[in-house]
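Worked Example 4.2. Read the sequence first, then its structure tokens.
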Amino acid sequence: ASDAETISGYVFRGQGTQHVDYVGGDGHVHELWWQADGWRHVDLTVAAAAAVPFPTSSVVGYAFESGLFQPVATQHVLYAGADNQV
């Protein structure tokens, strides 16, 4: 693992869930998420058919909760891909 890798966590009140995003040992972006009945895992790289992260990429995850100017709550995970795209 690279010293540049990070773990990012956030709460998504719109679904009552908690999320942890990270680059796994397989070089993919993964997410662990919790809701009332337990933890779940998803390989976001596979699920989004996305590029693998740049080797020293850090991930950041966050939620936009719904409100006056954001009527639909959304979740976002960003990283620099090996294809030089965000």
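Now turn to a second chain, presented in exactly the same format:
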Amino acid sequence: AIGALAVILMVTIQYEINEIITGLVGVILIGWSFWSSVRRNKALAAAEGKAAGSDEKTEVSSGV
């Protein structure tokens, strides 16, 4: 988001860019990052749940 805003700042030297566009770019990039993080966390939790489930099946009790 910071890189995109820096590019927009450099473009505004030559061209007029509305503040709404600048704000929307930041909001979109931050929202996309948040969504990506939520998806990754869900995928990791699902993979961890599957791994834990397979560990339980192979676990052997010592009988003590």
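Notes for the reader: The chain has a mean pLDDT of 83. The helical segments are 2-11, 19-58.
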